Amino acid sequence: MLQVLQFSKYQGLGNDFLLLDGRSLEDPEDLFGLTPELVQRLCDRRFGVGGDGVILALPPREGGELRMRIFNADGTEPEMCGNGIRCLARFLADSDGDVAPRRWEVETLAGRIVPALAEDGRIRVDMGAPFLTPETIPTGLAMGVEGLPVGMLEVLGEPMAVAAAGMGNPHAVVPVDDVAAIDLETLGAALEVHEAFPARTNVHFVEVIAPNHLVMRVWERGAGPTLACGTGACATLVACHLLGLADRQARLDLPGGPLEIDWEEASGHVFMTGPAEAVFDGVVAPSMFGVALEARPTIDCATVCVNGCLRPEACASAEARARVTALLEGRSLDDLVTLAGESLESRTRGRLCRDEPAAP
Question: Do 170 and 259 sit in the same domain of this protein?
């Protein structure tokens, strides 16, 4: 187990995440000791680091380059996050020193997603094909002649025309005349848990400015109001196109900024292009875990020696434990934080060099 948890914070249009690099973890299920309660504490904007979620880069399982797991601020685990995977791609590029063109095959609970680093520094993501049948979203709304589930739902006693689409996670899309006038806190919360969405849903209110220009507001499942939602922007464009309100390609303005969404006719895939930026690197104090640093086990032998040490005369972890014990006994907590910071500093220096303009 880790004594000092290193993280990097990234944001995509104001949707912010803590990124943890676990690609070298021997046990892909370790997850840095994260629990729903710890995720909530980390994402708390007053008592923790603050964020809309926590993203882990993990070893692959199904032939991809890596695997992504994401946890909402409330500790729940969604299938995918469009802004999150853009932040992950930017984090990987910064960590590994990659430059455009570069793409990653990322395994997610919504299937394999392929983000790519563009020459202008933005991230273009192949989000795959949308899910447009009630059972795949999932939703209790009936399939409409438009080609996606639609219907009138009673929300807080009022009828509301709703369309549903999936991007590996469920989305409710509600076209309105004036998106700024919507009571997002009330209506978003009510629609998220509506019985028409058995797995709960993300909620998006959208105003059509022009067929190639939409404005939307977001209520994310498990997070509440956020400044942006990548999968939501994709689902909103798909729904609006099928409803006859938008083109296949459009700019979608979210509170945090614009995304370019393209529902490619030839492949049927939805492509999302937008920014992702580093905010800062840091380490989490051991007190956040509720356990003193020295009390945390350095190696979880239980995963190997379930019924006791298999080789007590030559324990495979003895040398490693001895090195860690010597390190802990010979250094203060400040020294350990400094050691962790050195690797973070090297990544930051690499990022600064990347952003410096080339000499004429």
Answer: yes
What residues does 57 pair with on adjacent strands?
Answer: 21, 68
Residue 337 has pLDDT above 90, yes or no: no
* pTM for this model (two decimals): 0.77
For residue 342, what are its two tokens? 């050195």
The whole-chain average pLDDT of the chain stands at 87
CATH number at residue 173: 3.10.310.10
Give the span between the Cα atoms of 212 and 116, in whole angstroms: 23
Distance, CA of 248 to CA of 265 (rounded, Å): 8
User: Considering 43, 81, 87, 240, which one is annotated as catalytic?
Assistant: 81
Is 353 in the active site? no
Residue 166 lies in a domain: yes
pLDDT at 298 over 50: no
Give yes or no: 81 in active site.
Answer: yes
CA pair distance 229, 256, nearest whole angstrom:
9
Same domain, yes or no: 71 and 154:
no
Of the listed 87, 229, 234, 240, which one is catalytic? 229
3-state secondary structure labels for all residues of 65-134: CEEEEEEECCCCCCCCCHHHHHHHHHHHHHHHCCCCCEECCEEECCEEEEEEECCCCCEEEECCCCECCC
For 131-177, write each residue's pLDDT tens digit. 999 999 999 999 999 999 999 999 999 999 999 999 999 999 999 99
> Does position 1 have pLDDT exceeding 50, yes or no?
no
- Checking if the pLDDT of 233 tops 90, the result is yes
Cβ neighbours of residue 135 under 8 Å, at least 6 residues apart? none
Does one domain contain both 217 and 320?
no
Domain interval for residue 32? 5-126+277-352
- Number of domains the chain is built from: 2
| Residues 251, 154 share a domain | yes
